[in-house]
Design a protein that fits this description.
FAD/NAD(P)-binding domain, four-stranded parallel β-sheet, 7 helices, 311 residues, alpha/beta, single chain, 24% helix, 15 strands
Length: 311
């Protein structure tokens, strides 16, 4: 049975950064990549240092893989279908992309499985975010949309919060689309709407006009609404099933809780990137990965507190 110092689950920016640090520490590391990094959906990010002209998510991943290859590490296209504790660490079942599975033993495990954006419920428009028709990160590219007509798809406090963030940061022309869900506002929320002059559209969207690879108009309630940019603020589904199966704790949204070393509440199990509670940004996920990988290296031979000899 293959044995490694650390199994990194996830081949996005956070997972690949952790693998790079561990490789440079001289650790035996295996990266299991299911091939679904959220970063690959980014048309261009303009807030990554050193890439002033913007860089697509796929280019970021390509550069990271090339860097890792210098240390003889190439992510394995495999999905981890099972993860359990055992004496001395963990055992994981890897299912290869081409079929077949095997078990790998790891002293430590780092989860960088990320999250999935909840897709907007628009007619005849599956995978809107993946196709770039609807954006999802105004922190990454909102600066390029400043002064434009912007719509935010969302509801509840989260949707209003995103609309307010965009209105006070990038544009004075912001509309919140609830896609047919009533928006019950308290006094403080109504004040936010009034202060930032956010328009509210609660009617369901019944039709779309798409031109030049963009949504040009949305129809609903007998009216037509035109915007230059659409953002989705419907939240995330965290890929935390492996951690939850081991008893790891999460917050009310589903993100994993970690300590200052990015270690979850399960000793020896670390997490980095979008799966962790906090700001969902590539540079933040890379920071998580650097912190976690360094702690893994420093503690790798030391038993965790729930193992024989641990403290």
């Amino acid at each position: 049975m293959e044995q490694v110092d650390c199994l990194v689950i996830g081949g996005g920016p956070a997972g690949l950064t952790a693998a790079l640090y561990l490789a440079r520490f001289g650790r035996h590391v295996l990266v299991a990549d299911a091939g679904e990094p959220r970063a690959a959906w980014i048309p261009a990010s303009h807030n990554i240092p050193f890439f002033a002209g913007g860089i697509p998510g796929t280019d970021i991943l390509d550069l990271q893989r090339e860097h890792l290859a210098r240390y003889g590490i190439r992510p394995e296209m495999a999905r981890v279908t099972g993860l359990r504790r055992q004496a001395g660490g963990f055992a994981a079942v890897l299912e290869a992309a081409g079929g077949g599975d095997r078990t790998v033993e790891a002293r430590r495990v780092l989860l960088a499985t990320g999250a999935l954006d909840v897709e907007p419920d628009l007619p005849d428009l599956p995978d809107a975010v993946r196709r770039g028709l609807v954006r999802y990160c105004p922190i990454c590219d909102g600066h390029e949309s400043r002064g434009q007509r912007i719509a935010v798809i969302g509801h509840g406090a989260h949707g209003l919060g995103e609309a307010a963030f965009i209105a006070r940061t990038y544009s004075g022309d912001v509309t919140l689309l609830t896609l047919g869900r009533p928006l019950a506002l308290d006094k403080a929320q109504r004040e936010v709407v009034a202060r930032h002059r956010i328009r509210l559209v609660e009617e369901p969207v019944t039709g779309l006009d798409i031109r030049d690879g963009r949504i040009a108009a949305l129809r609903g309630g007998g009216a037509e609404h035109r915007f230059e940019v659409l953002y989705s603020a419907l939240g995330l589904h965290y890929r935390s099933e492996l951690a939850l199966g081991l008893g790891a704790e999460r917050d009310e949204s589903g993100a994993l809780l970690v300590d200052e070393h990015c270690q979850t509440t399960v000793r020896g199990l670390y997490a980095a990137g979008d799966i962790v509670r906090g700001l969902d940004q590539i540079v933040v996920g890379m920071g998580h990965a650097a912190v976690a990988a360094t702690h893994i290296h420093n503690r790798c031979e030391i038993p965790t507190e729930d193992e024989p000899g641990g403290s």
